[in-house]
Fold:
Amino acid sequence: MEKTFKMAIKKIVVIGPESTGKSFLCRQLADHFKTVWVPEFAREYLLTNGKDYTFEDLSVIAKGQVEKEDSIVYGPWSMVHSKSSFIPRTLFIDTDLYVIKVWSEFVFNKCDNRILTGIVNRKYDLYLLCNTDLPWERDELREYPDLATREKLFHHYKDAMINQEIPWTEIKGGYEERLAIAIKAVENIL
Structure:
């Protein structure tokens, strides 16, 4: 009978306002650490359903983000054969429920309790908070091209990070500097 074992995956979440390089950084980190990453579900949802979203859509998006993450964390390699050639040690996640909380409160001045409960119950190992110091890039889904609004949103995220217990690192500078800061922060928890 072959042995199986459960592998603990270090989960690193990349958060921040739109157009701060979150997806790009997740791809870079996954490549660097030779692992996988979870794309942002909201992008997929809004491209399919249209960008005129409602308060209720944010709960659907939150559920989709969690399911997408869990499909990897608890997927085929969570209980793997010891002969497996690929067992991810780290998982990079492009946004989490904090992003949906900030988004919901910023747009609708309220947040669904299921999202808040999810924040409390989900466990991560590190947050990487992307600063707004990259130039804003136009995208069919992006809503806030002005720097003042993006900086206001950044401070909402920073406040969330300060008021929780998981380690976090601010990611800023050019793309190479951001990657170097992120790699060092990840290596510190491995």
